UniProtKB/TrEMBL annotation:
It comes from Nocardioides caricicola. Keywords: ATP-binding, Nucleotide-binding, Transport. This is ABC transporter ATP-binding protein. InterPro entries: AAA+_ATPase, ABC_transporter-like_ATP-bd, ABC_transporter-like_CS, ABC_transporter_ATP-bind, P-loop_NTPase. Pfam families: ABC_tran.
């Protein structure tokens, strides 16, 4: 697999005012971060609150610049946002006055290159991909949280980005909808071959989705270890997105082993800032 995204010795500092002497000083959010993501790979990034996950995503999205080191895509330094990368945030960012279909068409209009009929047909196709073909004419206010997030994912995918950047996209959803959308996202990833960088607090979510899980430590934010996930995902993709969850890989011993390993990696460095019991899967 060829490298698509590369972070090399990346550092990022922010000027902040000290609590004690009120002077401005540099807060080191990221230090010496190295991470390579292959074309078509699904990488999850997990770590304690404030360790710099969103900062990494912002750098790859081109919304911020590193203070040191380089962030590149396809061998070229990232200098700003681009149509090759699409971002899905935790909060649904749909325009409330446009229908599900209208929101997607708007993204396609911004991208350019398609006429009105082509935009409409592409929007329909992506709504179908996320199981919302029958909700095309609903306004966001008439959709559930999970449906809104599916529209946001469809919108991001409709512009056919090389890379999908997801910042806790399922964080605001109930547990059942969250698991359903995780299943759905994996299916979409398998079908489209899009490269995905997915941020989460949730160890189970990281293990379930990622081909590799990059585990971060905090203060300063660093990649502590990248764990290869090898789970038997046979049967992936042949599920019904409206309810029939595929064989529950989360219940296997292999899954528990990865959960345990990642939990320990997080606990070693951030004892005190994470949950106390091992059974707690979230580190937020
Ligand atoms: N604009 C900013 N100015 C000052 N400090 C910032 C700024 N943005 C982020 N930080 C700090 O950088 C660190 C990393 O923040 P970031 O949002 O990337 O963490 P995170 O791992 O995504 O956290 P969470 O999981 O809680 O969302 C935090 O300590 C945060 O306070």
């Amino acid at each position: 697999m060829s490298a698509l995204i590369e972070l090399e010795r990346v550092g990022r500092t922010f000027p902040v005012r000290s609590d004690t002497d009120k002077r401005i000083h540099d807060f080191v959010a990221l230090e010496d971060v190295d991470l390579t993501i292959g074309a078509g790979e699904f990488v999850t990034l997990v770590g304690p609150s404030g360790c710099g996950k969103s900062t990494i995503l912002d750098l790859v999205a081109g919304l911020a610049e590193p203070t040191s080191g380089t962030v590149s895509i396809g061998g070229r330094p990232i200098t700003g946002p681009g149509l090759d990368r699409s971002v899905v945030f935790q909060q649904y960012t749909l325009l409330p006055w446009r229908t599900a279909q209208g929101n997607i068409e708007l993204a396609l209009e911004a991208k350019g290159g398609l006429n009105k009929a082509e935009r409409a047909s592409q929007a329909e196709e992506y709504l179908r991909l996320v199981g919302l073909a029958d909700f095309a004419n609903r306004l966001p206010g008439e959709l559930s949280g999970g449906m809104k997030q599916r529209v946001a994912i469809a919108r991001s995918l409709s512009v056919q980005p090389e890379v999908l950047l997801m910042d806790e996209p399922f964080g605001a959803l109930d547990a059942q909808t969250r698991e359903l959308l995780q299943e759905e996202l994996l299916g979409i990833w398998e079908r489209t071959g899009t490269t995905v960088l997915f941020i989460t607090h949730d160890i189970d979510e990281a293990v379930f989705l990622g081909q590799r899980v990059a585990v971060m430590s905090a203060r300063p934010g660093r990649i502590r270890e990248v764990v290869d996930i090898r789970l038997d995902r046979s049967g992936a993709g042949d599920h019904d997105i409206r309810g029939d969850i595929r064989g529950d890989i989360r219940g296997t011993q292999a899954f528990a082993g990865y959960r345990h390993r990642i939990w320990n990696l997080l606990r070693e460095r951030s004892a005190g800032s994470v949950g106390r019991r091992e059974g707690v899967a979230s580190v937020a």
